[in-house]
Structure formats: C-alpha cells, structure tokens
Specification:
This protein is α+β, with helices and mostly antiparallel strands. It is built from 15 helices and 52 strands. The structure holds alpha-L-rhamnopyranose (RAM).
Length: 902
C-alpha cells in the first residue's frame, strides 16, 4: 500500500487570496494560494506541498509559469506565489499536491484558474461617458409635497458594433461613477446589484469583469447600460445635494477570435445617451420611480432607432484616480422570501394594503400587482408597526418610497434596480381596487455582498437560537458592499466603531474575510496625513468631517489584528501596518503623559445613562479619557504583537514599552488603591482593562470584584453600550464566571438581548430599548431595528458556548473549552477554519455529558473540560487515565462522555 502514489486524496477547496474560487477579474498580481485536505482522507496532516502554475490546463504537464517544487511546510493557506507578477487579463491554471505525515504524496488537485482583471488605468482605452444633463438634479414630489432632496436622472447609454463569426472569448470590463447595470443584446450581463460598490471614489473605483462570450452574436450587437446616482452622486446623510461630479460609465468589451484577431469596444464619443428612460429617478435613501410610459422598446437591441438620443459627453480618466479590479464579491440577491401576512392596520385607508415579510431585511421588493393605467402605485417600507400603524419616522429624511406608473391596466411585475431598503413591512397603494390583495403580490429579495452565510449555532433554547438567527440577519442586513450601521434610514454608513466590534464575530457566521480586507483598503485611503481615521468610511466625499473617536478609529488596528488571529494570514497585517502606525501616531498626538484625551462616542447608547443633554446622554457614563486611554493601550498592545509577527522587532519592543507605560498611567489615573474607578464606576470601566489586560494579576482580581458588584447592582443585567457589550462574555469567561454571562444573556427584561426578542425583534437593534410591542419606537431620531453592534455577542456562542477558539493564529492549534450551563441541555455548531471544519456538539442529560468533536485535518486540538469530569471521563468509549489524553488531539472524530453535575 505504501508504495501506491494514489491513495492519498488530492487537496480540495483550492482558493486564491481571501477565499476566491476560479476568479475572473482578479485583483492580486502575486496571488496567495490555499487548499484543504479532504476531511475523509487517510492523511492527517501535511508535511510538504508543491504548487504549479501554468498557462495551460496541465495537459502538457508543464508548469511553465511557476513551480514551487516540493516545499517542506505544514502550511495549507496563504502560500505566496513567487513567480513573475501576473499581468492584466492574464489567465493561468494552478494545482497543488501535498505530502502527508508519512510522506505519501497525494494526487494532484484538479486544475483551478485565475484570470486577472485590468490592473491599472493604462489598460483602459475609453473615457468616462455621460448624458449632457447628467449633473442636473431634480426634486421629487412625495405624498403631494415637493421634497428638497436632489435626485439625478438615471442615464441610459448605448452603442452598437459588429461581431464576425468565430468568437473565442469575450470579457466586459466595466465600472461607473454611480451604480450601473449593463446589457448585451438585451440580456442582463450580471445579477450583481449596486455595482461597482462604494469606495473612496475620488481615489479609487473598483472595476468588474464579466465573461460575456455567450451573449454575443454574429453580426450586429448592442451594448447598453443604465447608470444611476448610487453613493457616488446621491446624497449622503443630509438632504443637501453634495458638490459631486456627475455619474458616468466606463467600459471596455474585449473580444478574442479563434483566428487570433481581437476587437475592443469602449466607451467613447460614439455612444448615445438618454435620460428619458422608464427609471425616472433612483436614490439609495429615497427609492426609485419607474414610469412605464417612458419605456423604450428595443433600446437594448441592435437596430434601435436612437434618433432622439443625444451624443454623450466624454471625460478623461483622472490620473489621480485608481481603477482597480473589485477585490471582493459584489452584492447580489441572495434569497427571495415570501410575505407571511397581510396586516389589518388600525387606520385602514381605502386602497392601502400592508404586507408583513416576517423578517426585517435589506433588499428590494418584487411585486406582482394588478394595476390600472396611469394610476401611480406607491410602495413604502417600514421596519415595524407602531400601535398597529405603518411607521416610517425612524427613517428620518430617507423617503424610502418606490413609485410605479403603469402605462396600461393589468398585472405589473416590478423589481427596483437602483435602490435598496431596510424593512419588514411593505405598504402598497394605488393598485386596482377591484382586486383583493393576496400574499403573492410581494416577495422580498434579500441582498448583500455575495458571500456564504455559514452560521451553524443551535442549542436546546429557542430564544437563544432566535437571537443567533437575528444576529445573522443583522449581518445580512448590513453587508451591502461595505459594513454599515443600518440599512434603512438616511445613514447606512460604514461606521468604524460598529465594524470594529462586529468584524471578528462576523467571521464565525459568514465567509467575509474578503469583504473586510477590501473595506480596510478604503480605510487606508481615507486616513488623514496625521493618522486620523474618519468616523465612517468611505467618508463624505469633498466634505471631510474632521472628527475622530477612540473605539471607532481603532478599527484600523483591531480589525487587521483580530482577522489575523482567525485566519493566520500575515498579509492583512502587512497591508495595513503603515496605517496602524499612523493611527497610533494620532493616538499619541492626543495623549499627554500617556493619558489620552481623544474625542469619543464612548460607550455609545449605554442604557440607564446618568448624563443629561441629548448627545452627552448617548455616550454613557464611562469617562471619555478612561475609554480613550484604554483603547490607546489596546492599540499599542495589538500593534506591538503585529510588529512581532511581521519580524519588526524594534517596533515591537518600542510599542510594548509604551504599552507598559500607558498601562501604568491608566491604572494610576483612573483607579484608586482598591481598583475602584475614581470618577464613575460602571461595568465598562472594569470590562475595558480586564478585556485588554491592562492590570497586574492582583489588581485584576480586585477590579473583577468591582465588576461583579456593578453587575449585581444591576440585578445581573448589562449596563453597557457599543464598546462595553462585546467585552462582557470574554471577560466573564476569563474570570471563571460564564455562569454570570449566561444569567445576563438569558435575562428577559430590559436591558437584555431577549427583551428585543420578547418584543418581536427579527434582527439586532441599535438600542436596548429601541422598540416595544406596546409602546412602539422609543425614539425616532436615531433608532434603527437593524444594527449589528450588539450582535457581537455571537462570537461567544462559538468561542464560549461551543468553546471553539484558535490557540494559534489561523486555528493551526485549537482549544475547545465549552461553557456548560444548566440553561442549556444541548449546543452544537461548527466553524470553517482555514484547515477545515471544527465541529462541537454537546448534550447534558441526567448529569451525563456526551460530546462529539471533529478536529479538522492538519490541526490539533486540546479539549478543556471542567475538572470534576476527569474522574469519569471516557474518550471514544475508553476510560481516561488523565486529562492529558485530551491534549493535542490529532485530526478526527471524538466521542466524549463524563458525569457532569452542574
Ligand atoms: C450613529 C449610529 C452608529 C454609531 C454612531 C456613533 O450614527 O448609531 O451606529 O456608530 O452614531
């Protein structure tokens, strides 16, 4: 058997970069390669690998581009390509094989492909094109009133070209200022929505690449696109129109023929434009207006009479603007859900019907409604009802209304294209009232960036499961190209503090490494020369707010470091290191004698705040300087560890020295001899130093007691806002009080997670008391029902309840330490580590614990159980002599049984 070369299964799940499978339009000229050992393979681990990169499918068996040769290494992820940098459009194949622990070689994997996008501006032959009136804004009538929000007309753009027989392949490279959708010969090129997404547009715009080979026909072809304002030209935050450049389109269609010839069609002065198409207006916040009377039959097809269309205006591609291939997946429709109910609202108006989608979500509706010619249909959106009435005040200035004007009577089928809404309820009026509303009239198209949601946590407790689902819906609802605070009101911004607390948790629930890495590039681009990180990214174009906040700007250091811990990918540190240093400089510039006075949103939205004043109250009771100095210390600690990983010893030492000094000053300034917080004793004032390891062991013991006292004073309720809440679980587990974390987690009364569920939540809310079934919204000025920050607790479902955490970066070694509780008789779930899936499934029945664990290939795991189990422990039905038998377990499945009295 030993001499057979082919017993060892080939590696699987080959990906490049942050998890891309056979990408086209790829962004990274020096790709990183990753793979996994098949979970059912005979092999346990890897001793060596060989990667080959070739210009062909390996049919000639030659790695003409790069061959790593047999390389002794246990690494299966993020292996850097070391050949010649890949160039724009280049297509390569790659494969990998490995040698296992017995030096048996595996089969080669199936060949995988990479095709590069257009890597720099020089590759673009065309110009930006736009309609001559693209920068004229319009106001919109809303409920009979003229609303001042400026909106821009979507631009319809088209050209025609001839294709000769024998097309080998065709690629469409495309982007826009604004958002686009494109068509070839009438067929939509892609199901992506809101492309190219949102980056700091004055510095970088992402470009997309589509395989359009099958859309071309011999003879005359038509290439068409619609461009709407999106984030680029549309308003951000306030209703005032911004000083922005108009929306525009840039594309390049490249056709290769079998005979070796090629042809390129790009955006140039020969294109024609119209703003008289059926999508009259479209805005992220305000919604879309579609008028069927403006339909232009055939405009996407060859031979259309474009006599009334205008010549486009062309603009050169700016030299200071980088066009780069999109480095993460574009948003798309990920699910379609049915309406579950038609609500009899309390103030029924004739011809108004309200549908309940059963789920607060981000996306657009898909409506099939009986309509009457020229009777306007109005579609509005709400997150919740208040006193059984449709309620939209918490959307603030976002009109979030779609209009459809039918040209003839009959059933209309409408899906808005250039907007998105955050909603659970859909109100429709203006339909044909002779027809009775039916659930089939509305569906909800759930949209987010195209990643897989992998969350698998489940337990014996229904409300806990519901909470876990709600948190996942909070994720789905706020990952539309960038991480947002909320999807519904006039905000929807990349608030850095919210992202800072939710990025690591989100990794346990979805395949979002690429999503976060891409957004980090925007943060780098938005950093000021003095190191400041804006409070939200991308920021308001042309109107840089000058503010900064501790706990928000710290996103610059926390996200790269924590993603490195979960992935083991040093590139996330290398790419961001300069920015991290910059942010630290900014911290330093706000510090005096190691104490930071940086501005801060503080423990944002802490419940029962004692402070007065509208904005002050929101910041909670934990003092600003205490918070800012704690984050300054955390930044120093994380950056010094990062420097060490990157081999920058001098930096590492310097930062850890400074960390030591800041800790000392922090301890002396904010705490008395008994470690009681001097100015304001809050849960967060102890959580921060305990979570960030800012105290000596003895000091920490005393501070722990104060934390426990604070929690007891609150009758085992939390008293934490955005910054403190995510720290509760890790700190309580660290000090051996997971029991108390369960108490807090299972509280039903305000403030608690279950309070929201008791009041009908289907997502996580912005405030602990955002809404109640009896009283409705607590505050309408800043109150979203789809805000992910408090969902950060989900990390503990995986790391605590299931107990799965990395003991070395990237889960090469794993600790499994479930936190058993009388609240739960069962919990199970898994996490897809870079090596494979780790699974934990435990049950406690009649004081008997039974637990199944799957340790992925190429890792080892140590299972830590309560000491009292050791005397009765059985592993795979064998009695254990010592707990050491649970240390460094090899890959495989394990059955554990023990007596466990809780
Ligand atoms: C509001 C949102 C956001 C928060 C900022 C400080 O706009 O609640 O989530 O980060 O304030």
């Amino acid at each position: 058997m030993q001499n057979s070369q082919h017993l060892v299964q080939a590696p699987i799940k080959l990906s490049v970069g942050e998890g891309f499978y056979n990408p086209i339009g790829y962004y990274e000229p020096m790709p990183r390669f990753s793979w996994k050992i098949h979970p059912e393979s005979l092999s346990q681990s890897q001793s060596a690998y060989q990667i080959q990169v070739a210009s062909n499918m390996f049919d000639k068996n030659s790695a003409d581009i790069w061959d790593s040769k047999k390389t002794l290494s246990a690494e299966t992820s993020w292996i850097k390509y070391e050949g010649k940098a890949l160039s724009s459009r280049q297509g390569v194949y790659w494969r990998v094989r490995f040698w296992d622990e017995q030096m048996r070689v595996s089969n080669w994997s199936k060949p995988q492909s990479i095709e590069m996008g257009l890597l720099n501006n020089q590759q673009w032959q065309g110009k930006w094109i736009r309609h001559p009136e693209a920068n004229e804004s319009y106001v919109r009538e809303y409920e009979g009133n003229i609303v001042k929000n400026a909106l821009y007309r979507p631009q319809y753009l088209r050209t025609e070209f001839r294709v000769k027989p024998g097309v080998k392949k065709a690629r469409l490279y495309i982007t826009s200022k604004g958002v686009f959708t494109s068509f070839i010969n009438g067929t939509k090129v892609s199901a992506d929505v809101m492309t190219p997404g949102w980056t700091p547009y004055l510095k970088r715009i992402e470009t997309l690449t589509y395989d359009v080979t099958s859309l071309l026909t011999d003879g005359q072809n038509a290439l068409a696109a619609i461009v709407a304002e999106g984030w680029h030209t549309g308003r951000i935050l306030s209703p005032e129109p911004r000083e922005v450049k108009p929306s525009a389109l840039l594309l390049q269609l490249e056709i290769e023929y079998l005979d070796g010839s090629s042809q390129t069609i790009s955006t140039d002065k020969n294109w024609k434009a119209s703003i008289k198409g059926p999508i009259r207006l479209a805005s992220n916040y305000d919604g879309e207006t579609y008028d069927e009377n403006y339909k232009m039959p055939g405009w996407k097809l060859a031979g259309f009479d474009q006599e009334n269309w205008l010549d486009v205006i062309t603009d050169d591609i700016e030299s200071d603007l980088a066009l780069q291939p999109k480095r993460h997946t574009a948003p798309t429709t990920k699910a379609i859900i049915d309406a579950i109910d038609i609500i009899a609202v309390d103030n029924p108006q004739a011809g108004v019907v309200v549908f309940d989608m059963g789920q607060n979500m981000l996306g657009v509706p898909e409506v099939h409604i009986p309509a009457l010619a020229n009777q306007k249909i109005t579609i509005r959106f709400a997150e919740a009802l208040e006193h059984n009435r449709f309620y939209t005040k918490n959307l603030r200035s976002a009109l979030a209304t779609d209009y459809y004007i039918p040209a003839k009577s009959g059933i209309i089928h409408y899906i808005p294209t250039f907007t998105f809404h955050g909603y659970r309820y859909v109100e429709i009026s203006g339909y044909d009232q002779t027809k009775t509303p039916d659930l089939s009239w509305v569906k909800g198209r759930v949209q987010h960036s195209d990643f897989d949601v992998t969350a698998s946590f489940a337990s014996s407790h229904n409300k806990l499961n519901k909470l876990s689902e709600n948190i996942v819906w909070g994720l789905r609802g706020n990952f539309l190209d960038i991480p947002t605070d909320c999807p519904q009101r006039d905000e929807r911004l990349g608030w850095t503090g919210d992202a800072q607390v939710f990025s690591a948790p989100s990794m346990y629930m979805a395949d979002v490494y690429g999503f976060w890495s891409a957004w980090m590039q925007s943060i780098r681009e938005e950093q000021d020369t003095n190191g400041r990180i804006p409070n939200f990214v991308p920021t308001k174009q042309n109107k840089h707010t000058k503010g900064a906040s501790s706990g928000w700007g710290d996103v610059a250091i926390i996200v790269p470091y924590e993603l490195y811990q979960l992935t083991g990918d040093t590139q996330i540190l290398a790419e961001n290191y300069t920015m991290m240093k910059g942010w630290l400089d900014f911290h330093q510039s706000n510090a005096n004698k190691h104490i930071s006075s940086m501005d801060s949103f503080q423990d944002w939205l802490q419940p029962h705040s004692q402070r007065t004043g509208k904005w002050e109250k929101l910041r909670g009771d934990t003092p600003r300087k205490l918070i800012s100095t704690a984050y300054y210390a955390r930044a120093l600690d994380y950056i010094s560890r990062s420097a060490r990983v990157l081999g920058l010893e001098q930096d590492a030492n310097q930062y850890s020295e400074e960390f030591r000094r800041v800790k000392k000053a922090f301890r002396e300034t904010f705490y008395d001899n008994n470690l009681m917080a001097k100015t304001s004793s809050t849960q967060t004032s102890y959580l921060l130093p305990l979570a960030f390891d800012l105290f000596s062991v003895e000091d920490a013991k005393k501070a722990q007691q104060h934390l426990l006292d604070e929690i007891a004073r609150a009758d085992n309720h939390l008293r934490t806002g955005f910054l403190g809440t995510p720290l509760l679980a890790p700190v309580l587990q660290k000090i051996g009080r997971s029991d108390l974390m369960y108490e807090i987690l299972f509280k039903e009364s305000y403030p608690s997670w279950f309070y929201s569920i008791n009041n009908g939540a289907t997502t996580t809310w912005e405030r602990w008391d955002s809404y109640s079934l009896t009283d409705g919204f607590s505050d309408e000025s800043m109150n979203s029902l789809n805000h992910y920050a408090y969902g950060a607790v989900a990390k503990w479902f995986y790391e605590g309840i299931l107990g799965i955490r990395p003991s070395s970066p990237g889960f090469k070694t794993i600790t499994i330490e479930p936190q058993f509780t009388t609240h739960l008789s069962h919990a199970k779930g898994g996490y897809m580590t870079p090596q494979g899936e780790v699974i934990v499934d435990w049950k406690i029945h009649n004081s008997q614990l039974s637990m199944q664990v799957v340790v992925p290939k190429n890792t080892s795991a140590t299972i830590v159980l309560p000491e009292e189990t050791y005397s009765t422990l059985r592993l795979n039905r064998h009695s254990l002599v010592s707990a050491n038998a649970l240390v460094n377990l090899a890959p495989g499945s394990y059955d554990i049984a023990a007596k466990l009295d809780l």
